[in-house]
## 1
Amino acid sequence: MEANLARESIDQELRRRQLAQRLVAHQARTRTIFRLTGLSRHQLATMRRRWQVTAEMRRRGPVPKSFAAFLSTQRTRDEAAVMALWWRLFASVGATSQPNGRTGRLEIGECLCDVFEAHTACFPASTLELDHLVLLSKSVDEAAALALGRCATCEAVMLADLLGPRRRRCYRCQRAEAVSPLPTTSDEQKRVVSIGEGVQQELF
C-alpha cells in the first residue's frame, strides 16, 4: 500500500513538472503556470534556469482579462470559435474519463495544452496566446460573456458576444444580408444556442 502511494506521488510530481515544461514552452505567464501546476515561483524559476529559458522567451505582465482580443477582427473571431469548440470537445472527453466526472487542475492544464497545440498547428500565424485560451475556456463554460453557438442562417459555428449587440447571424451571412435582406423569423432568438453543455471545472 505504501509503495503504491509513493509511486502515485512520484507520478503526480512528474506530471506537474511535465505540464510546467509544456506551459513554459507555450509562453504561459507565471501566474497561469503556478495556478495550473501548484509549483511555487521559486520552483518555476529553478526549472526555467535548467531549461535555459531566457527573458526574451517569456511573456510578462498581467494575464489577459479583456474579451476584445477574440472579437477584434473576423479572422480572430473565427479562430476563437474553433478554439472554443476544441476546448468543449477535449474537455468533455477528459471529464468522462474521470471517475467522479470532475477534472483536476493537472488534467485541465494538460487539456489546455492539447487544445493550444492543435490550434497552433492549424493556425500557425494566430495571435491568440495560451493565456487567451484560459480566459476563453472559462467564459465559454460559464456562458457569462461569450457563447459558442450556430448561425441562425447557415448553421456555421460562431462565437456570440453576450455583452454586446446580439449577432444572430455570422459575419458572412450579415454581409450577404446587407446586399440582399433575409426575412427574420420568430425562432431566430433560439438559433444561437450553446453547442453542447459546458463542463463545469475549477480552472483555478
## 2
Amino acid sequence: MKAIHYTDNYLINPTHPVTVNLIGCGGTGSQVLTNLARMNQALIKLGHMGLLVRVFDNDTVTEANIGRQMFSPSDIGQNKATVLVSRVNRFFGLDWESYPLRYGVENFDKTAKLLGANILITCVDTAKSRIEIGKLQKEHWTFYKKSNVNPYAVPLYWLDFGNSKHTGQVVLGTLKEIKQPKSKEITASHLQTVTEMFPNLSESDILDNTPSCSLAEALGKQDLFINSTLTQFGMNILWKLFREARLKVQGVYVNVSTLCTNPIFIN
C-alpha cells in the first residue's frame, strides 16, 4: 500500500542554511549543481534560509567533457569541482565550497569534518562508490547520535542519481528515522536509500567510466540527454520535499530511448 512521507521539520524551518554535500560533478552532477543554485534562490525568496553546498570531485575537465557536461574549452585541465563552484558563486553571488578530492575512505581525515550534511547527493559512476559512501554515512551516524552536534551537521536525506547509456534512476532515501506527524494516512518515517533498495549492488558493478578521447566516444557510453533528464526529475523530487513538505514518490526510473518513466512510490 502506498504511503506518504512528511519532510523533516528542520528542512522546512532551519536555523541555518540547509547543508548539502554533492559528490561528483560530471554529466549529472554538473547539472545538479546549477539546479541547486536555482533552488537556493527560490527558497530564499520564499523566506527560507536557503542552502550551503559543498562539492567533491577529484577529476579534471577534458575535451571529451565539452558538450555533454557543463564545461567550456577554457576549463580543460582544471578541476571540475573548482570550476563549477567558482562559476556558480560568481553568477549567483554565493559562497559555496569546492573540494578537489575523492569523497571516500582514502581521504577520510580530510573529509571527516565535512561528512555531516543534511542532504547527501551522489552522482557517481560505480556501485562500489555508492556502497562505500553508504558505509561512511552509517559509521558517522553512530557518532552523531552520541554527540551534541549542530542541526546543520545531522544527515537526513540521501538523493542518488545513477544511469547507463539510455536508462537511469533517481532514489531519495532517509539517513535517519524522520518523525512523522499524526495522520489518517499511512506515513513512512524511513525511505529506503539506493543501497537498501538495491541490496544486490556489487562492488564490481560499474558504468563504463574509462576516459573518453572525444565527445563522440563519450556519447557511445551515455546518451546526450540522459543526465539532464534525470537531473530534472531528481531535483523536482527534492524541490517538493521543501516546497510541499511531503512526498508520495521517492524516485523514478527513466528510459530516454523509449521515453518511458516509472515512479517509485513510497511503501
